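ENTRY TYPE: paired fold submission
RECORD: A
CONTENT: sequence, then structure tokens
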Amino acid sequence: MAVIDCDVLVIGAGAAGLFAAFSAGQRGRRVQVIDHANKVGKKILMSGGGRCNFTNTGTSPANYLSANPHFCKSALARYTPSDFIALVNKHKIAFHEKELGQLFCDSSSKAIVRLLMDECAAAGVQVRTDTTVEAIETIADGWQLRTSGGVFTARSLVVATGGLSVPTMGATGFGYQVARQFGHAVLPTRAGLVPLTLSGKPLQQFDGLSGVALEVQASCGKASFRNQMLITHRGVSGPAILQISNYWQPGQPLHLDLLPGIDALAWLEHNRRERGASELRTVLAEVLPKRLAQRLCELWLGDKPMRQFDPRQLATAARLLNDFPLTASGTEGYRTAEVTLGGVDTNKISSTTMESRLQPGLFFIGEVLDVTGWLGGYNFQWAWASAHAAAQAV
């Protein structure tokens, strides 16, 4: 069997892998990309509801979780959202800002995959799908990989295999295996940016409310996010919940402000004075979805005219509205998670080049590393930035 020789071999044809490949190719490197899936960029295609939230204009290191919060700083500083926006403009891809700095394609995520593949083609990069890695070993001047598509030799090996989220898209723990093979620690992984499940009484209390959406401030410990929440038939979802899921651990209390930006006590007192004959559920339905307002009154707040609430009852109701305790039982897991928390410990990785400090010529980029962004384009920006950092060094 013929040996395919190259300067850089990238494992993983997702956002980080394809970006690193063409960036290295532009520097004159002979680059091969291999992926076990049957097509490239599967998670890109499904991202952002099919429109790909490809970056966030407000990206900063504060938007990332890692055991080493300083690790992401260098790469993010050297490849910024405006750098990627310039690339998007070069390819004449129309886009819009949805909210909070989130940029989406006007048409389809396919435009971003096409951008990456066009850049790869222009840089002479060869991309091979349906290619499974069977063995990796070091040789005198680099690497030798035995795969289902033949034997590859390379000076540099870039692992861009992502995390464990959405296994139906081909996600595996392969990158973690490679890291361990060459002496790297892998920090515990768990589903991130994921819906939360309820069980027992908390689930029963929300029974019949599936599909109800509202703006909340979701808090866990010191973390807090204000955005939409969606009640599902299994628990809660929506941007505010996905964000807080990164900070929540089983057994931890969650708190929801159902009236963010409103002092519930002052608001209730005002309505008691001005609309004493109105039922609480009627007044609440003006600021909350009607079905939720009814359920809150049935189970927690009381169902009677405003004037019948004494000061103590109003204070109790206000507390519940501004600080509703939610007991989650778990998450929907990797099946629906947008990202994987944890991963390859950055302790033995160069923050400047993404190169292993234990094995020269071995690089880890993107989601396989213990760097996880918030919801809203931050994980794509980390893919571009970490890939760019590695491509300058391979």
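RECORD: B
CONTENT: sequence, then structure tokens
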Amino acid sequence: MPLALLALAVVAFGIGTTEFATMGLLPQIADGVGVSVPHAGNLVSAYALGVVVGAPVLTGIGARIPHKRLLLLLSGLFVVGNIASALAPDFGLLFAARFLAGLPHGALFGVGAVVASRLVAPERAARAVSRMFLGLTVANIVGVPAGTALGQQFGWRSAYGAVAVIGLVALAALALFVPHQPRGSQSGIRHELRAMGNRQVAIGLGTAVVGFGGFFAVYSYLVPMLTHLTGISDSSTTLVLALYGVGMTLGTLIAGPLTDRALRPTLYGGLALLAAALVTFYFTVHSTVPALATITFIGAMGAFVTTPVQMLLMAKAKNAPTMAAASNHSAFNLANAGGAWLGGLAISAGWGWASPNLVGAALAVAGLGLAFTGGLMDRGGRRSEVITSSAAEAATETEHAAAARNGEP
């Protein structure tokens, strides 16, 4: 089990590295393909669009494919997308390659989260999922700075090539360590879509889009805030972003056990603390030490919210959790786009570089309101029963597969 979770974490590490390394290499990419830096920024949008489209589409296409085989296919597509990015001769093909690289992102996380939750006892499911997400947070500490430095030293193509190598390592680890998890007779696109029609799933996705939009409203403008208001030099911002990643790692580690104990209270507390931290940063951004401490806490609370939202969606989708889990990452990318847009509007309106903090806090509070609405609608329900049903389904499917191998009816 630990090796299987490590394999899933390696996949998440590769995804996190390729998603965010582009942002640090925009000047080099712009020079390499002959476009302006703002135009090169569309590559970030191309990847995000791939995530939004690919999560439901690829999960639906693979609804009847056993989870391990689907993970291998999606990882192969991830490798192809990054190799294509490294070899793209012009901006148009690079844009298409980044879209291709983003397609398996959400589906990999969705299928991976379901697989991780079924590797352990039901009462430890959230901890297992959070261990997978650790790969994403560690990518912000190690992968993104290393990829950026590699691209700056040896050319931006080398960064995508390195990510492709990480993808190949992840592919081998998945093949070796992740056990087979058969699909049930009820699996299929219609079954997954019926689960997506659950109102609680819709509210959960809305919570992710709105609440996590508060995180991205600030993250998107963190570097100019640090340089213009805190007085940190451009050369030091990479270290500060790594500190942000440390906070995200700590938040992920804490969220797993707490989500296993009490899912909704963990979600409520995470969103409330995120809103409080963003308001605090509005005031501490002008002083270096308090600003760095607040940044670490914001990173922790942003990551802290991820696990309970993921587990809530998987729980409410009941026996068809894969598409709901994958769509969560479409929701996060919509939050990225929406939060950045709203934060930019505040800056453009002349409210100052610190104003995205207040926008982010408002979004976090709105997300908290959606989460409370879902909780009121769900009053009296027990999280553990829903999670257990998924584990029980997996056990039943395994028994049926064993009986079929033995020639039993």
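NOTES ON RECORD B: The chain has 17 helices and no strands. The two ends are 30 Å apart (CA to CA).
STATUS: closed
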